[in-house]
Fold Glyoxylase-like metal-dependent hydrolase (Beta-lactamase superfamily II).
Amino acid sequence: MNKISFALTNLAAVLCLTLCSAHAQLPEPDGGTIERGVLPTRWLSEGLKCMEIPEWQVHEYNPNFFLLRQSPCTDYEKPVVFLFFGKDKAMLIDTGSRKGNLAPSLQWVVKNWLARNGRTSIPLLVVHTHEHGDHIAGDAALQAMNDPAMPVTFLAPTDLEAAKRFYGITNWPTDIGHIDLGGRMIDVIPIPGHSALSIAFYDRRTAILLSGDTLYPGRLYVQDFAAFQASTERLIEFTKGKPVAHILGNHIEETSTPFLDYPVGTIYQPNEHELALSRGSLLELEDALLSMHGVPQRMALRDFSVWPSGRQFAKPGDKEKYEKHAKEEKEKMWDHSLQ
């Protein structure tokens, strides 16, 4: 390559870097139309005593978006669920794991929101990131609430055809669906791989991408490797040119120490990794998957790990280690300061 060609190539790269990313940049000083918010600096799941941890920790990201995290004392999975408010509807994404008892905390948040906004009711859509038990265990209780302040429309997590109709997706998983809450448009991106019906949600108002169990600070369990890789690439393509404030998954299984996670079954998690990841994490995940050349394997990265599912990927003694650790955690759940 001669000097002129080299210079032109570099110029083109600089121009592309500037112009191709222009759509993801927003004006100073306040990010234009993006609604900002604050994530927790600490979750109560890091507490030593289960008596001091509520069934659900409620966090207000901003006045119209809430995160609720299940207590580790009811289930070590301690998933996060998400609650959005639009002008016409509210939407709850996931209902928690076993023994979660989400309904009282959800009603408390919704009714406080109604009081603050001078309203008496708002329809509530209940949807899911995917169909696994630690994301749908609260479904039956919410369907049975019968609360006139928040009449529920429920989307079954295992009905693909119903989901396609509800979100306006013709071709699964390549089409992008949408749900309008009234002045709040949520984009719906099919991302099978972790499970057959995994879905990501992008909130245009906060520029937050909810990635379910496909990407979060922890062990990314992969059921279908080819689909998981394709979904990762689809998320990268979807977010290209868009602002991404945070990528939020449903769990934290990683410590704040790079490349170190908590063992499966851990209740007490001091020094947790923050919940939020960035678009850069998507690129890092794609790079890791490509490096496997179609042959799935466990791989630890800085902020998460790739864990293909199946007996062939298990290591000797995994089951025994989990059972021993889970037993020890339960024995200490009332006071983890006691060794």
In short: Residues 62 and 80 are 16 Å apart (CA to CA).
